[in-house]
Amino acid sequence: MKALARAVFVAAVFAGLGVAAGGALSGSASRQAGHTKLTSPLGLPPVPEKYAVLPVDKIELGRKLFFDRRLSFNNTLSCAMCHIEEDAFASTQSKRAIGMEGLTLRRNTPSVLNSVYQKTLFHDGHESHLDLQVWLPLLAADEMANPSMGYVLDRIEGLDDYKARFERVYAAEGISIHSVGDAIAAYEATLLSGNSRFDRWHFGGEKQILTKSEMAGFEIFTGKGGCSSCHLIGKDAALFTDHLFHNTGIGYRASMHSDREYVIPLAPGVETRMLRHEIDAFGEKLRNDVGRFEVTLNEDDRWAYKTPSLRNVSRTPPYMHDGSVATLEDVVEYYSSGEAAKHATNGKLKRLDLTPVERANLVAFLKTLDGDDRGRR
Ligand code: HEC
Ligand code: HEC
User: Fold this and answer.
1) Measured between alpha carbons, how far is 247 from 344 in angstroms, rounded to an integer?
2) Number of Cβ within a 10 Å radius of residue 50
């Protein structure tokens, strides 16, 4: 039933794309000048061809949409209110995202920096096209809560400041299912973050730039820690992900503690704590989270989540798909103690029993992965 609903949704989006192609390709020669070529910073692979050269007007339009609260049903939520620019385009204020009317979502908000390189999107990879992804938050009842795609298009149509901009970028097409998603994706494609201290050391040959402790952490990361068997480092670039899904025990642990405590934000700075059965008694039941299984219905994928990129990881606590691990020290302890390995099916996770110094070194290494995107604009 759910799979069917998704298939219909995707079919509808593709129908929109069909109509759109003509418009998108009809850019006039005079506009060629106003393009920007996205060159990737040190440590990142080349920008995928589809996004490598973009009209400046399109990026600006996408940026405006990304930050516009009027895209949500009650004019309160923009993409940027969960993907907060100062927080590396993630949220650090809450474990799970806070959506429409203060509802707590199931999952932690991931950073959208470098999302142009992601092969699948969301913690369980339930979308694979960046330019279609936008429709899921726009339509999710607990996120931007719009009732339909048509409703969103009518809403944008009714806002005076958009008509001319869409016509400039998408001449024949105007405001459409395709153009809205395409513009936001174009903006997201510009959110590149590399040239970290790690990159300058590893790819740039600045051998003096890391401390002894950070270099020792790198040895653990790529050696006895086995971290880089999933958080990959390539020859010329590193995304710190294998683009695959693994059970590292976080989802399992959450499911076994089904009456866990939730922090409910009441107003900025005011919180209350409730047990799950108390929330379920009056609210909409929180859906269980079984990870990649929800997409594939394959038992092996139960509680498996996408390997996240570790770029900018020091800037995006709390961690894991549900934000249940507070600090990088806690993450390293979780792996070291063998907690993660208990549930692993592919032999890549082992109990590590790292010494306190080794754990500190590993954390120090993780902190070298902060990119230099700050102040890009
Ligand atoms: C209420 C908070 C909230 C809002 C509003 C929101 N997002 Fe998200 N976003 C999330 C959460 C939470 C996830 C992860 C959800 C999951 O895995 O199921 C996510 C995932 C994503 C991802 C996938 C990243 C990855 O690496 O897998 C992208 C891209 C994204 N959002 C872009 C957007 C855009 C564009 C908008 C506006 C149209 C938007 N988001 C609005 C909270 C939000
Ligand atoms: C078997 C593959 C695998 C190995 C090996 C592995 N990880 Fe992970 N890592 C993952 C997955 C999958 C997640 C996401 C789990 C979730 O969301 O529930 C993750 C999450 C993380 C996070 C949280 C990132 C965030 O943004 O929430 C950090 C930090 C991390 N890993 C560091 C490490 C370190 C350090 C090691 C080595 C000690 C390591 N990982 C080994 C697959 C792996």
Assistant:
1) 6
2) 14
* CA 120 – CA 74 distance, rounded (Å): 29
Interval 186-207: pLDDT, tens: 999 999 999 999 999 999 999 9
pLDDT for the residue numbered 266: 74
- Closest ligand to the CA of 106: 1
Q: Which has the closest alpha carbon to 125: 301, 249, 288, 251?
A: 301
Q: Which amino acid is at 151?
A: Y
Asked if residues 93 and 109 have their Cβ atoms less than 8 Å apart, the reply is: no
The pLDDT-based confidence of 288 (bands split at 50, 70, 90) is confident
Structure tokens of 235? 């020859």
Mean pLDDT of the chain: 87
Residues in the chain: 377
Q: ∠ at Cα 44 (116, 125), nearest 5°? A: 35
What would the mean pLDDT of 93-122 be, rounded to a whole number? Answer: 92
269 band by pLDDT with thresholds 50, 70 and 90: confident
Contact status, residue 154 vs residue 70, Cβ threshold 8 Å: no
CA distances from 263 to 54, 104, 174, 241, 274 (A): 42, 9, 43, 30, 7
Q: Are 38 and 47 in contact (CB under 8 A)?
A: yes
In this structure, the residues whose C-beta lies within 6 A of any atom of ligand 2 are 123, 225-227, 229-231, 246, 248, 250-251, 305, 307-308, 310, 313, 316, 319-321, 328, 331-332, 335, 344, 348-349, 362
Rounded to the nearest angstrom, the gap between the alpha carbon of residue 5 and the centroid of all alpha carbons in its chain is 23
- The rounded distance, in Å, linking the Cα atoms of 377 and 282 is 45
How far, in Å, is the centroid of ligand 1 from the Cα of 137?
Answer: 6
State how far the Cα of 369 lies from the Cα of 310, in Å rounded to an integer: 7
Rounded to the nearest whole angstrom, what is the distance from the C-alpha of residue 207 to the centroid of ligand 1?
Answer: 37
Atom index in ligand 2 nearest the CA of residue 250 equals 18
CA distance 319 to 309: 12
Range of weakest confidence among 11-20, 26-35, 348-357: 11-20
Q: Quote the Cα angle for 242-248-251, to 5°.
A: 120
